[in-house]
Amino acid sequence: MMIGKSRMGLRALAGVAAASLLLAAGCSSSTTSSPAAGGSAASSAPAEAMTMTFLPKNLGNAYFDTSYKGVQAAAGVLGATVTQVGPAKGDDPAGQVSYINTATQQQVSALLVSANDKSAICDALKEAMTAGVKVVTFDSDTNPECRDLFINQATAEGIAKVQVDIITSEIGDSGEIAILSASANATNQNAWIDMMKKELAASHPNVKLVDTVYGNDDDQTSYDKTSALLQSHPNLKGIISPTTVGIAAAARYLSKSEYKGKVMLTGLGTPNQMRDYVKDGTVTEFALWNPQDLGTLATYAAAALVQGKITGAEGDKFTAGDLGEFTVGADKTVLLGEPYKFNKDNIDNFNF
Amino acid sequence: MTTLTSGSPDTERSYADYGRPAWRRILFSREMAIIALLVVVVIAASLRVPKFATPVTLGYLLFDITPLLFIALAMAPVMITGDIDLSVGSMVGLTSVVVGLCSASALPIPVAIVLALVVGAIGGAANGLLVTRVGLPALAVTIGTLALYRGIAVGLLGTTAVTQFDKWWTTLVKARIGSTGIPVVVILFVVLLAAFVLMLHFTPFGRGIFAIGLSKDAASFSGVHVNRTRLVLFILSGLMSALAGIYYALYYNSARGDNATGLELQVIAAVVLGGVSVWGGRGALHGVVAGVLLIGVLSKALQLVNVTSDVVSIITGALLVLSVIAGSVVSWAQSRRVRPAAAPAKTS
Predict the structure, then answer these.
(1) Helix and strand totals (H; E) in chain A
(2) pLDDT-derived band at A169, boundaries 50, 70, 90
(3) Which of B162, B157, B169 is nearest to B110 (CA)?
(4) Closest to A156 (Cα-Cα) out of A115, A189, A118, A116
(5) Does residue A138 register a pLDDT over 90?
(6) Do B323 and A21 touch (CB under 8 A)?
(7) Which residues of A touch B37 (CB under 8 A)?
(8) How far is B302 from chain A (nearest CA, A)?
(9) Backbone angles phi, psi at A52, to 5 degrees
(10) What is the average per-residue pLDDT within A185-207?
(11) A93 contact residues in B (CB cutoff 8 A)
(12) Which residue of A has its CA nearest to B345?
């Protein structure tokens, strides 16, 4: 009896296996029907029925999910169909190439991409452009010849200035401040720090930058450096940390120390990391850009390219819904604008 | 209980069942099942997926799976001997970095290619020597070198990437044969495939590979140089990974330490899907190639209908598990049919 049962079990298993294999194979064909209809409709329908592919660095990334909200909202207004695809893990240019090629084959109207590597996906993007796909990069650019437009979230000048503005207004435009950076040879960090120094010298003569320390974008190191900074500079009134790891570690230290509310902290952070510290008063205001607006702008820019309203030449103007009018700058770049300031009034609108 | 023992790996570990006529052996094999499934999927995709049945698709699909194809050719014989090489993905990363560093120091690409192949051979030999001379299990050794080779690759380039390569070579790697859409590199693959088929299925050396997988002692007593064979196969695995690394650097214009992370699992999945037994001793290259193509076709077709990458992973993963289950069930059923005496009587 036992044996009979186990034999039947195995047979049933074989049956299930065979059926599931067929199902898996069938799956690839059955799911096609609706997008297939969408695809063919796009080619025969009037020109304004646009299809777009949104290709972030990777899927399941809260930052890009926020951008995608903006993309979907804009696509809704424009009447465009947008699909999000992408590699499962970040830093996978090969995975992105595969999706770019797919978009080329599907002959979508536009491709919105945040590049995992500025050159690795270049040739694939060129092929897409040759096939008539408008290529818009956002957040992370490729080489300029490989896209029609780059939507730049912020300039280095803007990033430097907003942090100096926040800290100087918080400390009453006089006193000692310090910087907690990532690593001593991080190119963008150093560029921002240089601009901050210039901005301080030019507009805030009473504010003195007394020290720059490096937390190497490591949570524990940044935490320890914050503590050391406060001990070695007893008159310190403010800290700028232009790195998301640094500002979160510094905020964690400050929130549990006697310096909470006395030493000001600002820098570049993300709402999810900083929410608790903004609510408990450790941090009043910090900056970054708004990824949702970035997605919206990229979508409007792509639509303007598809509709032939702009070509990506310097000086071209287009309107991006509520965000207003934008002008294409040098190197086929559109600037989102000033960095976005997050504080307790708006932080709950964001989840990334 | 008795039924389960008769379906256990022991009965599977025979090279081929000569109790059946040749046409049945060939037609009702695991490999043929995968080829049939591949044909079904290709036909279904051609009918239902828009823009699938085009030369463009064929080209992109082959470009995507070329590294898998190269490495699978060498992984199959390694696995048939009962070993495994988990360091291939890291070796791809490391050799792509070697090509990148050569290019950055203005060495001509042919020199870079030779150096990458040398690195691949040395890495493969290191795996092989640790397995055969020191006698460590291949799984343990190659998990170690997986981390080691990746570490060296990332250490050499840091977080930067080399993205400038000789235009002539990158154009060659990206070239297609006329209007067929078939990449030129496929010619190299076909040549290598022929060589591996010859080696594995038509030479005494190849017979030795299967013999080792069935029983190392028996193979050794029949005059097979067990350790030498295994060493050679590990070196070949390193060389083929180096080839994939060269391809990675030139096709993607990008030498990065983290290139091809996780590729080893895709290769092993395709090889097992293609009918190579994880216990060693059985497998054939037509099945392996079909396994890689099946994974490639499924991913491309699903991508074209905008199915996300996680769902593609679920489907290919499920397919792999089911194919292994189906394979065991089939061989269990066959072992019962051929030797009915082996099946226990109902009276018990």
Answers:
(1) 11, 14
(2) very high
(3) B169
(4) A189
(5) yes
(6) yes
(7) 21, 25
(8) 6
(9) -130, 145
(10) 91
(11) 252, 254, 256
(12) A3
Extended strands (E) in A40-161: 51-55, 81-84, 110-113, 134-138, 149-152
* Inter-chain touch B319–A21, beta carbons under 8 Å: yes
Helix (H) or strand (E) holding B216: helix B216-221
CB within 8 Å: A105 and B49 = no
What are the structural domain ranges in chain A? Answer: 37-153+291-337, 156-288
Say what the pLDDT of residue B20 is: 66
Beta bridge partners of A111: A53, A135
Closest partner residue to A25 (CB to CB) among B41, B54, B64 is B41
**A7-65 pLDDT, tens per residue?**
434 444 444 444 444 344 433 333 333 333 333 333 334 445 899 999 999 888 888 99
- The top-level CATH class assigned to B29-338 is mainly alpha
Q: Is B106 exposed, middle or buried, given 0-12, 13-18 or 19+ CB atoms closer than 10 A?
A: exposed
Do A37-153+291-337 and A156-288 come out as alike in CATH topology? yes
Q: What is the ipTM of this complex?
A: 0.79
Of B73, B117, B125, which is closest to residue B99 (Cα–Cα)? B117
Q: How many CB atoms lie within 10 A of CB B199?
A: 18
Write the single-letter amino acid at B11.
T
Domain coordinates in residue numbering, chain B: 29-338
A169 and A289 in contact (C-beta within 8 Å)?
no
The pairs formed by B308-315 with CB atoms below 8 angstroms and a separation of 24 or more are B308/A59, B308/A84, B308/A85, B308/A86, B309/A59, B309/A85, B309/A86, B309/A87, B309/A88, B309/A95, B310/A59, B310/A60, B310/A88, B313/A88, B315/A24, B315/A27, B315/A28
- The pTM of the full predicted model, rounded to 2 decimals, is 0.79
> Which regions in chain B score pLDDT beneath 50?
1-12, 341-343, 345, 347-348
Give the list of residues 6+ apart from residue B259 with CB closer than 8 angstroms, or none.
A94, B92, B93, B96, B97, B153, B245, B248, B249, B252
Q: How many CA atoms lie within 13 A of B295 on its CB side?
A: 31
Tokens 């840091």 found at: B158
Q: Do the beta carbons of residue B302 and residue B311 sit within 8 Å? A: yes
How many other CB atoms are there within 10 angstroms of residue B122's CB atom? 13
Please state which CATH class domain A156-288 belongs to: alpha beta
Give pLDDT, residue B138: 96
CA angle A79, A85, A90 (to 5 degrees): 135
User: By C-alpha distance, which of A80, A75, A119, A74 is closest to A96?
Assistant: A119
Residues B210 and B216: their CA atoms lie apart, in Å, by: 10
Distance from the A206 Cα atom to the nearest Cα atom in chain B, whole angstroms: 39
For residue B292, which of B77, B65, B76, B42 has the smallest C-alpha distance?
B65
Do the Cβ atoms of A316 and A310 come closer than 8 Å? yes
Lowest mean pLDDT among A8-12, A94-98, A193-197, B107-111: A8-12
Residues in chain B closer than 8 A to A68 (CB atoms): none
CATH superfamily label, A37-153+291-337? Response regulator (3.40.50.2300)
Q: Which of A29, A59, A116 best tests the B interface by mutation, with the highest count of B CBs <10 A?
A: A29
Quickly count: other Cβ atoms within 10 Å of residue A33's Cβ. 12
3-state secondary structure of B162: strand
**How much is the pLDDT for A11?**
41
